[in-house]
Amino acid sequence: MTALSVNLNKIALLRNSRGRDYPNVLQYAQKLLAMGVDGITVHPRQDERHATRKDTRELANLIKHHPSAEFNVEGFPSESFMALIAETKPDQCTLVPDGPDQLTSDHGWDLHQHATEVTTLAQQLNHMNVRCSVFLDPDLEQVRLAAQCGVDRIELYTESYAQAYGQDNQHEVLARYREATKLATSLGLGVNAGHDLDLHNLKDFLTIPDILEVSIGHALTIESLEMGVGQVISRYLEICASAA
Ligand SMILES: CC(=O)[C@@H](O)[C@H](O)COP(=O)(O)O
Ligand SMILES: NCC(=O)COP(=O)(O)O
């Protein structure tokens, strides 16, 4: 079984667009945990345009009361991000090589360049008792380097799989993820996956054995809107139709 960790960044983004606490991120997390999701993910970016540092603190407190659920905090390992991790001690910290002005995550680590830094960060997280995962393209050489850095898991960046899904190269691309997962597992690394996974492409992706966790947010939020819109519009129409 693969754990589903729901990324609440897009709920936070909606909330931030109005300056009120609606929708409430914490209440969403509570609702999702009650529905049986295995974990909550946030990716607090430097400009706090989605999940904020405050959200991260509050979610950490909430999830401590749900021992069967995990809290995964993703982000670029700036000094302030690492201080937030030390303070909130999530179950897992996923290091992502994002620049501060990036629209969204769009590449994994290049461990030829960043092995020393990632090794030090993995040691720091280990001392905090926080599982260390690194965001990685499905590249065998990068997987080998990740194992040498002493991380616990890798998170495979699945955007290229999502792009290929339904196209002629789908099987070829999926095979790269399969090989990367197989190698990682044989080297003792756990494997997570995420980015642009959705209700259409997830099932085929999970034909790869040993994917421990998927974190999903963007599509899941849109799918929730799409699947709920019919019911909501009917109710509005009912109210409008009954108006004097
Ligand atoms: C690392 C990763 O893939 C996710 O954290 C994802 O990037 C969330 O991105 P947004 O901040 O764009 O919702
Ligand atoms: N780590 C990936 C994640 O948390 C969610 O990515 P997306 O579903 O928002 O693309």
TrEMBL record:
Its EC number is 2.6.99.2. It catalyses: 3-amino-2-oxopropyl phosphate + 1-deoxy-D-xylulose 5-phosphate = pyridoxine 5'-phosphate + phosphate + 2 H2O + H(+). It is an enzyme of class 2 (transferase). Keywords: Cytoplasm, Pyridoxine biosynthesis, Transferase. The active site is at 43 (proton acceptor), 74 (proton acceptor), 195 (proton donor). InterPro entries: Aldolase_TIM, PyrdxlP_synth_PdxJ, Pyridoxine-5'_phos_synth. 1-deoxy-D-xylulose 5-phosphate binds at residues 45, 50, 104. The record marks 155 as: Transition state stabilizer. 3-amino-2-oxopropyl phosphate binds at residues 7, 18, 196, 217-218. Pfam families: PdxJ. CDD domains: PNPsynthase. Its main location: cytoplasm. It is found in: Cytoplasm. Pathway: Cofactor biosynthesis; pyridoxine 5'-phosphate biosynthesis; pyridoxine 5'-phosphate from D-erythrose 4-phosphate: step 5/5. GO terms for molecular function: pyridoxine 5'-phosphate synthase activity. PANTHER family: PYRIDOXINE 5'-PHOSPHATE SYNTHASE (PTHR30456). Catalyzes the complicated ring closure reaction between the two acyclic compounds 1-deoxy-D-xylulose-5-phosphate (DXP) and 3-amino-2-oxopropyl phosphate (1-amino-acetone-3-phosphate or AAP) to form pyridoxine 5'-phosphate (PNP) and inorganic phosphate. HAMAP family: PdxJ (MF_00279). Belongs to the PNP synthase family. Homooctamer; tetramer of dimers. This is Pyridoxine 5'-phosphate synthase.
